[in-house]
């Protein structure tokens, strides 16, 4: 009797299971792709509940009642709970959340910090790299930036894109015109421009009160200009596939000798090694220096300050991306991203759920989603007047509180598609050069490698080389002194660091 009863129960379960599978199949056909884009992973008409952890720069981030959030939920077919974290204590909250074990579905990761790397090693996050090709927007991620954001070549978060080719040269265009000079295209023309800005009274005031280029104690400009001479970005690769640090490259001394020449001839500010980076742009604004190697978009900020002080000087600044040397036309990239959106394994337990989350991330790159997250709802948060975007939230705190912060979920893949205010010729030039720069930037072949040696000794090792470069430029040490610094770098852990990086490089191949 018991055996017959048991067979009936098993049969009943089988029938119910078949009916459920058939029902789910029907649901998936009717639910379709309501929100546009790829619906991979959506197996029913029910909305997935999604917790999203992102920073906020506002004291009053959007609430659950935000009409913008409702529209984003509708577009992505998800029920979203925003977990806003004040940016001022983001790192602390990030680490507390990691240690709690209660991770949201989507978690903003500010950097490849030791705590994040440890969590990845413990299996807390999905490796999403193999899935990206299945999504129309995510599949268009930049390979260099993916590598930069990866951990030993594996992708554990979708990067939030920033301009990879952002570095360039800001020049006083009015000074060029006053001296009858063209924008420099080669390193010799660049040098001649700096010399003319220093010696030939470019502002026409009859005073010896100008110099070529302003540099601060921030070492970025030297790193950028090194690449012009063919120096690698942090690590170079020899003909045998071995990696070596940039300062061991054959072209390194040529770059340093050029920098020393600029310093010796007074073409850069004498106090660069102690100058506060916060005041870095002031000499260009004040008409003391004519050039700054910086991010391109600092150009329009400098121009706006000059024009505010002197409206008659309406177009004083131009920008270029780089200058050519015997090594060709090169430039130093940025990392290309600002944090990542990672998918946790504690909340997202199956591959099917992972695909639903990736579908959400993919849709957040669609034009409609970008506009919602960045600009809000047309007629409510912005207007299009005579074909031009006009925000309504600038002076309305209540409206701003409905929108402000959702752009922290944006990855801008393959490009930004949200609405922008009317541009200027200089801003448009900056954006054009950023795109053109992507063809000449020098990738770091070791960017994704996580070194235990560097995590312990990196700051010390970096400081040895940075200090030696400054001392060489200002004449405190000679080439022999540089060689001594390199030997000190090796004996302080550098040799071990090189061995570890090369082992990681071999493993990655």
TrEMBL record:
InterPro entries documented for this protein: Bact_solute-bd_prot1 (IPR050490), SBP (IPR006059)
Residues spanning the membrane: none
Domain of life of the organism encoding this protein: Bacteria
Any Pfam family matching the protein: SBP_bac_1
Record keywords, A-Z: Cell membrane, Lipoprotein, Membrane, Palmitate, Signal
CDD domains (UniProt xref): PBP2_AlgQ_like_1 (cd13580)
PANTHER family: ARABINOSE-BINDING PROTEIN-RELATED (PTHR43649), POLYGALACTURONAN_RHAMNOGALACTURONAN-BINDING PROTEIN YTCQ (PTHR43649:SF33)
Protein name listed in UniProt: Extracellular solute-binding protein
Species name: Gracilibacillus salinarum
